[in-house]
Write a structure and sequence with these properties.
Two copies of one chain form a homodimer.
Chain A (H helix, E strand, L loop, with lengths): L8 H23 L6 H8 L3 H7 L3 H19 L15 H17 L1 H16 L1 H28 L9 H18 L6 H13 L5
Helix pairs in contact in A: 1-2, 1-4, 1-6, 4-7, 5-9, 6-7, 7-8, 8-9
């Protein structure tokens, strides 16, 4: 079977899907969510508008799938197996959390992820419907992955039994996103480590 | 001296300034930062465009002052004296932090503050210059107020000596803003209390 034969339709679909995602992410980065249109995405991707509407009902649906795909690729680059949705569990909670927060720092410092993620976060902040979809599809699953890891550590006696896994998750993820979004300080591995250290030790004297 | 005499020019200025702020906050809430113009603010405030340009060099400058004024009014409503910039220090760090984070929850749940704050946060997320001004003028002073209170507690031996006051501040403020911005859960006094409790105790077993 050589590549010179009739093109494989599923491969062609995959190429179009990838072109649509790339165009959508580029446009939302360059012009913002509000000014990105299905027509503009189609033109930049070199596909017909009908092709987009065959697969997605709306601009928001295209962009959300593009972000999910981007996020899956980021996870794969960080070494996660395809479809892997759990945090590592080496038995050392601090080490596992440092590992994951350092990977998050790397992702947020990467312009390929930074710009479109800002655009979607900004749009979701002022558009409640898009914000709810963004949170449900992307953010909530990430938070639950952290909460499950902390719950397992609590069950194993490695975390204070009074810990609420959801609050503990937000203690780790919230500051990182806040510093990233508002650029209130450098986003480094040392910062990720300090966050884990403070969240585990707490502020009260021992 | 009766009010029927010639109008007091400084009082008239104050009325115009207030009208400009109200118009700016209403417009940015209704149409977003990008579509808010100096012309639109002037028309809604019932003042000339020249009046605005006499006091402020740009749209961003008007909006930033309107936000600073809004924030000062919110602080006054929360019981702070005018110009007061320090956290209460009753000697009980947990109680003082609960008090302040509960007031922040009330403010973020108030539509008068929620909508314009979202608009500015969203714009700052994608516009680095505006974001830097927003952070420098509004966010950074708030973070430093927390950091000074935690530093005082550390000096008094009420906080673990290994605590970095800045990281500790972000541990308290970051999750609250993250939950507010992305609507990942209810913003309640109980949540504020749980955050303080977890940040002080830490996750590690004692």
């Amino acid at each position: 079977m050589s590549d010179a034969k009739a093109p494989d339709p599923s491969r062609r679909s995959e190429r179009s899907r990838r072109a649509v995602f790339d165009a959508a992410l580029a446009l939302v980065t360059e012009t913002g969510y509000a000014r990105t249109t299905v027509e503009g995405i189609a033109a930049r991707a070199g596909v017909g508008k009908q092709t987009i509407y065959r697969w997605w009902p709306s601009k928001a649906a295209v962009l959300l799938d593009a972000f999910l795909d981007l996020s899956a690729r980021a996870a794969a680059e960080a070494g996660a197996a395809p479809g892997e949705t759990e945090l590592p569990d080496s038995g050392d909670l601090a080490a596992d959390l440092r590992h994951v927060l350092r990977a998050t720092v790397d992702e947020l410092n990467d312009p390929r992820y930074d710009a479109p993620t800002r655009a979607l976060a900004a749009e979701g902040a002022t558009d409640p419907e898009l914000g709810a979809r963004f949170t449900a599809a992307l953010l909530e699953p990430q938070l639950q992955v952290f909460a499950r890891r902390i719950e397992a550590a609590r069950a194993a006696g490695r975390v204070d039994p009074a810990t609420d896994p959801r609050i503990a998750t937000e203690l780790l993820v919230g500051p990182l996103h806040h510093r990233w979004l508002h650029r209130t300080g450098p986003l480094t591995h040392a910062y990720a480590d300090a966050l884990v250290d403070h969240a585990l030790r707490g502020l009260a004297p021992r």
